[in-house]
Amino acid sequence: MPDIAPGSGALSPQSLDNRSRVQAISQTSLKLLPATGQDVFQEAQKLVLDWIDDRAGQQLPPEAWRGEGFELDDVGTQRTAAVAIDQPRYWAARLDDGDRSVAKRTWVTEIGLAETANREVVFGARLQCATTGGDFPIQPSIPSFVRRIVERMPAVSLEERRIDKNPWIVTTDEDVDDLVDLIELRSRLLDVVVCSLPEHSDDPGEAMIDVARFHRQTLGAAHVAVISGAASFALTERLGREFSVFRCAVRTYRTQFDNSVDEPFRHPLTLPERIAAWESGSTGYERFLVGQTILRSAARRDPERDLPPFAKVKRIALQLRRTAATKEGASLKEQLDLANKEIEELQATYERDTATYLGLAKQYEDERDRATDELQQVQATNGHLQQRLRALQARLESLEQKSPAVTVPATLENFEPWCRDNLSGAVEVHNRAFNGVKKCRYEDIGLLYYALLLLRDYYVPMRVSGGADKKEAFEKRCIELGLAEEPTFSGTLWGEQGETYKIRYAGRSRMLDRHLKKGTSREERLCFRLYFFWDDDNEQAVVGWLPSHLDTRAT
Predict the structure, then answer these.
(1) Of 80, 240, 455, 504, which sits with the fewest C-beta atoms within 10 Å of its C-beta?
(2) Rounded Cα distance, 109 and 106, in Å
(3) Is the peptide bond before 140 cis (omega within 30 degrees of 0)?
(4) Of 190, 181, 225, which is closest to residue 298 (Cα–Cα)?
């Protein structure tokens, strides 16, 4: 038990200083499909036992190879145990493997096998690292028996998609459809990492990283795909340029992907130039990506959904054993012995869970403090950049240097790149707005561009600098364009429109509380609306939707 300060009911400072730092390293869950004439459950169990036997410190007992429960805790052995349940068929094992090179560091591996009613086998593995003492760097990894199972089992699926030892090569339109379905799968818990090839290539060897090695090192912890140059164009058509990946870039699609509300940076994109400039080059970037991808596999909100902790399985097995003994008429002494074992296991589980909780709490505290420091640094840098930008703008105005006239296109074909080239730093167009433009039926295409330039040239300066002259200039330009700038809602309607008038921005939900409007018709070709909000932190207007009218509760 942890040290308790006498009479305080709290952990003593000494116990806090000596607590283990527990870090969740990786977690994977595979489905092993049945095969005629094969006991997939037993074969997977044998592969895991072979791996445990190499690390246990002594030969496993005969009952282990029969698939029964066992426990090793002799001096000179690694702490090793397994539990078996007959109905339903379930087997769980745990190995505490002391690190050979770092003192007071232990790698805790938990494995579970469960057979379903249709003879499919759900296989799960979890790896944690417990360290007492120095804080040494960790390169996350997947236990090697996971790769053996994928290589040797007849058929394996990861989140309902068949996988094997080779990465997925995406070349056809059908492949792209499957990739998009996977990216948009709401139940997906693992990252999808897509490595793109040069424009006219379908050779995986031309990717910026060794994709075969990356797939092997993250097997079971992520979906890995290589997309050809031609297929990248099809992916861009499906997801939009902001969320696509092409020309040797690498993109990681996080879970809960939704390009109608997500911001592109939520699904990190690394350009080839950045990969080449990485410390140690592409190999260093690959090592970084392996670590980040594996760690995210363990950062689930419900890590016990597919793999209950070994201690919990052992406790259930003891309860089942005691219940069975009672039904079979066991003596009171036998029942008492089983109850005492159950109590001892509960006590041991409590101690382990307490230590694990304290270790994880320390890990999360450190990560929170680090993230807070990084946020403050980014905010400070952003403030300096904003001040520098305002100084440069003031200098240009004092020199009476005018910006070159912006060309307003007659079509919406290159709307996204036009926005990036002409609005950056003053107006940010959210991806949801880009999706709205793709469905545009409004007749006056030019007004979309002029409305955005109105925000850039008149609204933003008015908000940043203030002054009656800038307000007057903004209102005059609105009249010239036939636009009115107003609050999105008024009176009792405010706050009653659900999520329709909100977007996800900078990690939180923001209301589109202002809009530019022209026309009162509900017919989309005659009615123009541009919904936005003012971002005080970055001093810019953020456009969340255009050019049609968003639904209200009344409509």
Answers:
(1) 240
(2) 10
(3) no
(4) 190
**Helix ranges (DSSP H) in 153-223:** 173-184, 211-217
Which of the residue ranges 443-452, 498-507, 530-539 would you say has the lowest mean pLDDT? Answer: 498-507
**Burial (0-12, 13-18, 19+ Cβ within 10 Å), 400:** exposed
The H or E element spanning position 155 is: none
Q: Please compute the mean of the pLDDT values over residues 200-209 and round it to a whole number.
A: 95
pLDDT tens-digit profile of 491-517? 445 445 557 888 888 777 889 999 999
How far apart CA 317 and CA 314 sit, in angstroms, is 5
Q: What is the secondary structure of 29-41 as a DSSP string? A: EEEEPP-TT--HH
**Closest alpha carbon to 406 in 388, 427, 435:** 427
| Pairwise CA distance, residues 540 & 423, whole Å | 10
Report residue 79: phi and psi, to 5°. -70, 115
| 8 Å CB contact between 430 and 516 | no
159 secondary structure, DSSP code: T
Rounded Cα–Cα distance for residues 474 and 149 (Å): 66
Cis peptide before 309, with omega less than 30 degrees from 0? no
pLDDT band for position 267 (cuts 50, 70, 90): very high
Contacts of 472 (CB under 8 A, 6+ apart): none
- Contacts of range 459-463, beta carbons closer than 8 Å, 24 or more positions apart: 459/485, 459/541, 460/426, 460/427, 460/539, 460/540, 460/541, 463/534, 463/539, 463/541
Range 240-271 burial, b when 16+ CB lie within 10 A, else e = bbbbbbbebbbbbbebebebebbbbebbebbe
Which token pair is 519?
Answer: 């026309």
